Amino acid sequence: MDTTTSSRAIPQKSLADHFEDWLPKLVISPTFLAAIFFVYGYIIWTAWLSLTKSRMLPKYDIEGFFQYGKLWTNDRWLVALTNLGIYGTLFIGICLGIGLLIAILLDQRIRAEGALRTIYLYPMALSFIVTGTAWKWILNPGLGLEKLVREMGFENFTFGWLTDSDMAIYTVVIAGVWQSAGFVIALFLSGLRGVDDSIIKAAQVDGASLPRIYWSIIIPSLRPVFFSTLMILGHIAIKSFDLIMALTGGGPGYATDVPATFMYTYTFTRNQIGFGSASAMVMLGGVLAIVIPYLYSELRKPR
Amino acid sequence: MILNTLKKASLAALATGVLSFTASAGEVEVLHWWTSGGEAKSVAVLKQLLEKDGHTWKDFAVAGGGGESAMTVLKSRVVSGKPPTAAQIKGPSIQEWGDEGVVANLDSVANAAGWDELLPKVVSDVMKYDGNYVAVPVNVHRVNWMWVNPEVFEKAGAKIPSTWDGFVEAAEKIKAAGFIPVAHGGQAWQDSTTFESLALAIGGSQFYNDAFVKLDPKALNSPTMVKVFEALRTVKKYTDKDAPGRDWNLATAMVIQGKAAMQFMGDWAKGEFTAAGKKPGTDYICMAFPGTRGKFTFNIDSFVMFDVGGGDAKKAQDAMARTIMEPKFQEIFNLNKGSIPARLNMPRDKFDICAHQSMDEFVGSSKTGDLVPSMAHGMSTFAAVQGAIYDTVTAFYNSDMSAQEAAQKLVSAVQSSM
């Protein structure tokens, strides 16, 4: 009885060992292959198409970089880039500012912190489409804020940014910040919690004031949090598509067009696949400009 | 599920391998984006008629706006070598698909039924590639309509305008009376819809064709075009400030509710009035855009037939093409959709007065050369050029760019998109 079980147990164990060895690789390999194919494969495909004269259907005869040249003479592309600049800078800047400030305030061992944290984080649970649609109604002069304030008795109050070509891009910033600030608060809060209490106590013993402690000790120690937040927000900003589609539809006119909506419009609605691909490659360049320095700084550390 | 498909597949293999000559009915797979209420009903009619003939209908509906998602799906299907039987494609895009060499030849059906006599030449030209029929028209929308709430005009003491000058006069009175003269939705295609009607009213059909069909730089940047842009800015003066981004049907609702006096929109707007229980001629009035009486900008939906090889599939395809052009389908479909039949000389007693007016002007304008393709709805140019015109028009509409500058930009935008 004993011998049979043990003799059976030996091959079983080695089989299980084998299996254990292979399982992770086996589980990961489909995802890995899919990522190689669907992400990098299509990046290469898009790069190829951007060098061709593809219009309605893909064509594969390489014609050079003329689509890129055309891109930089296109008014709408320049508007899209300017908008991305305005939106990206303000969105990231304000999110970081508000996020850090509120995280520091929340960190003061206040009452009902859990509830407050949930309230701030909650917009993150909504999709950008919902955020965009809700803010579209709130900011519409005839429906939302303007009408409300006027009905409260301030007859001359105007807030028509959403329908003003010059100001509409800032409404996108408002909605984007509303959506993402909570997430940034959460990131900073966890960062603040990770700061070693003993350093702070030592600073207090040395007689440093509270603002001084924050400015010289705590905030510098949040450097990695700043980096990952910047990275995540940068991504969100560059690929913004749904928020703009829901909030302004790229309008008035194309005043709130960004590279993502530009790419979609040209590739999928105007039968200019080659031209659209060129704009997609420029966007990829933008993402890489953020990712590569980040990766560099991260990968350098362990050495 | 899998077993079922397997069974089906093996049966199909059997059928093609052994019994290919016995069956007479095939399957049609139809890609379209008519998924909302009245439109879906219209498609169901075609399905019933084909099923009565013994063919199988495989619905391939891809919902989403102006068919952008449907077109993306279609491209992938064609690239992979398995096009559907037919797809909802219109205007010059038919030529683009023809260039790809994937469309079917429908001449045998067309000659048997005499399509050349049934369709105005302007229309049949759109349906042909290289002289052969490759597409079938299902309807004709007129774009240069004005939808009027007569009550608002009455309250404001204004006369319903039939000329451009009359429009300005009426709009002033309506504005003074506290109503919104023009219900507009500030979206690129709506801006361009108004823009092309103005071009037709101010420049006439010859100018319209030179500018939007031939894309002649001399017409695109001309004193007439400057006038058209100026007129567009005048129209903007009479819209409300909440217009940007508004959907067209919400603008129609403003006319229905009596908040606004008129809307410039194609005849699909009629569906909104009908759904609100309003009667044409009394509750609302349909008129040609001021200054375009007797002229007609058309927007024709059509099905392009793809090369499906021979045999049953081709037979079913021919049957579909034939059925679409038959009076029975044209009548039911267009009654549901608010448009008019593409086929001439049909019984018209079931249509309302707006449709009658549209039919009369369709025939009339086809004789005088005033039947022109709608630029704003992709009937006059390729999508890339249309997009370039959209961009210029909407950039002008939403900024304080001068009309001269807009006309210059129009030329450069059109040329760089070609």
Structure, briefly:
The complex is a heterodimer of chains A (303) and B (418). Chain A is mostly helical.
Description:
The complex is a heterodimer of chains A (303) and B (418). The longest helix of chain A is centred in the N-terminal third of the chain and has 48 residues, at 2-49. Chain A has 303 residues and is an all-alpha fold. Chain A is globular, with a radius of gyration of 26 Å. Chain A has a single domain, classed as MetI-like fold, CATH 1.10.3720.10. Chain A has helices at residues 2-49, 66-71, 75-106, 113-121, 128-139, 145-151, 168-193, 197-205, 210-221, 223-239, 242-247, 259-269, 273-300. In chain A, helix 1 (2-49) packs across helix 13 and helix 3 (75-106) packs antiparallel against helix 10. With 418 residues, chain B is an alpha/beta fold. Chain B folds into two domains: 26-141 and 299-354, D-Maltodextrin-Binding Protein, domain 2; 142-298 and 374-417, D-Maltodextrin-Binding Protein, domain 2 (3-Layer(aba) Sandwich), CATH 3.40.190. Chain B is built from 19 helices and 14 strands. Chain B has helices at 2-17, 37-52, 68-79, 93-99, 107-113, 115-118, 121-127, 150-156, 164-176, 188-212, 217-220, 223-237, 248-256, 270-275, 311-325, 327-337, 353-368, 383-397, 403-417; strands spanning 27-32, 56-61, 86-88, 128-129, 132-133, 135-137, 141-142, 145-148, 180-183, 260-264, 285-288, 296-299, 302-305, 371-373. The radius of gyration of chain B is 23 Å and the shape is globular. Chains A and B meet through helix 12 of A and helix 3, helix 4, helix 18 and helix 19 of B.
